[in-house]
Amino acid sequence: MNWLYSDIVKEHFINPRNILINEKDFDYDAKGEVGNIKCGDQMVMYIKVRDNIIVDCRWRTYGCASAIASTSMLSEAVKGMSIEDAYNITPKDIAKKLGGLPENKIHCSVLGDKALKEAIKNYVKTHGVSFNIKEEENKVVCKCIGVTEKDIEEAVLEGARDYQRLQEITKIGTVCGKCKDEAIKKMEFYIDRFKMISH
Amino acid sequence: MIYLDNNATTPILPEVKEEIIKTIDFYGNPSSLHQLGREVRERIEGARAKIAKFINSGKDNIIFTSGGSEANNTVLNSFVRKYKDKAKILVSKIEHSSVLEHAKFLSREYEVDYIEVDSKGKIILEDIEKKLKTGKKTLISVMIANNEIGIVQDMKEIINLSRKYGAVIHSDAVQAFGKIKIDVEELDVDYMTFSGHKINAPKGIGAIYFKNKDIIPLIHGGHQEMGLRSGTENTIGIIAFGKAVEIRERDFDFYIKKTSALRERLIKGITEIPDVIVNTDLKNSVPNTLNVSFKGVEGESIMLYLDLEGIEVSTGSACSSGELEPSHVLLAIGREPELAHGSIRFSLGLQNTEEEIDYTVEKLKNIISKLRQMSTVY
Fold this sequence. Notes:
The complex is a heterodimer. Chain A is of the alpha+beta class. Chain A folds into two domains: 121 residues, Sufe protein. Chain: A; 59 residues, BFD-like [2Fe-2S]-binding domain (Arc Repressor Mutant, subunit A, Orthogonal Bundle). Chain A has a three-stranded antiparallel sheet with strand order 1-2-3. The relative contact order of chain A is 0.13. Chain B is α/β, with parallel strands linked by helices. Chain B has two domains: 237 residues, Type I PLP-dependent aspartate aminotransferase-like (Major domain) (Aspartate Aminotransferase, domain 2, 3-Layer(aba) Sandwich); 120 residues, Aspartate Aminotransferase, domain 1 (Alpha-Beta Complex), CATH 3.90.1150. In chain B, the strands form three sheets. Chain B has a seven-stranded mixed sheet, sandwiched between helices. Chain B has a four-stranded antiparallel sheet with strand order 9-10-13-12. In chain B, strand 3, helix 4 and strand 4 form a beta-alpha-beta unit. The longest helix of chain B has 21 residues. The interface between A and B is medium-sized, with 31 and 26 residues.
């Protein structure tokens, strides 16, 4: 009988790699923390960097099986990578390496790469490295409420599949409503992208 | 396999299985007047009588449905159709989703309100009183025992109070049925709903008790079930349900004794783990249910590690359901979201043994320790 998730997820869940049990035991250069236990998951990533290459990576989490497995996988994948390459790893890359994740589990794997990005940002900040973090273009879609493309993407990751749900999550288009068409177009774009991640 | 998820469903008892096998060849339609039909009719009515006896109701005050969800939906739907714009629905915050979601659906057209519970899950009577003072015709729906934390309500008090305000009373007894004594006459309830598969009968069979034959059907068609629920009867399900009830009535004391003792053993073992919060009110709960939260760990991980050890439980974590909100029941009793995310429900059944409980505790200790080692919040 198949397990809930792929065999790779299962294996990483049973034997998670690079867990940092005690922060004092790891001489890290930077750490990044994301998530909120109120929402059911929290993640901390620690990185050690030499000549802009991540030489070691550790983590801790309060999270579900997919969060554990995807972060375990991510922590292996980034070793030996330049901070630029590591910064550009997407949830899609991780999900692929894990042999796919169910749709409603994608947001768990997003957590690991968000924490990693935070860690790299902190590294760059504290070590004076010249590293051009390309912030994703983040256009405001709904001018009344100030909802951005990134907000729409996050809402899709949280499960928005129709305009009504998107409005519930983001309050988009609840004032003048002029942005509705653009909002739906953006939402559909992210849903498509999301489908590619999950399969 | 160690199955500790008996509030989700239960295995079919050997005697029930035997009854099912015996019933399979009785293919007659119980509505047919010929011999083959009458044969099945007799068995169906026998099952109805067994259920009626178990809850002290008249035999003609029970109809069969496809399960607890249909039974609950029928009662709520029937009420608003009868009282139309005068109708108000009042449900507790810890009801099963088949009541809560239907109430939410009805709230588009009808007034719906929710009753608060205290930190143990007990209905706050003053809140009922406050919300009944609206002058509307109100259906109050409160489950006797809760599926997640096992809390048993003081139904008599709730009903007495509601009667003062002329409310109609429905009680979802799916989780209480066969775990505590139920007497519909003494309770003076208007509707009560049941499910077969929680007491070792197969899935797909449930029932409604009604005091007065005033149900407006959800499913129209033939004249089955006194015209209150159409569709050719689930003969095998009904007969198996009757058998399961007969057995539970016979073994009731044994069931209580056995599950109570196993729960006691489980609590003793689990509370050896530090930072465990017991979410079940042990004094006022069905004896087979134990809900606990483990500080600093997320429930889906615990559940899946236990599953890998062959131990089956359930969790109130959001991750298990694909939702972002954890258990509505644990939030309603005031648990912090992180404790709700870290909750595990153990629900025991007749098939469980002391050895299984000991093995579970042993594995659980290792799992909690492993997860806490990697936790950001422990």
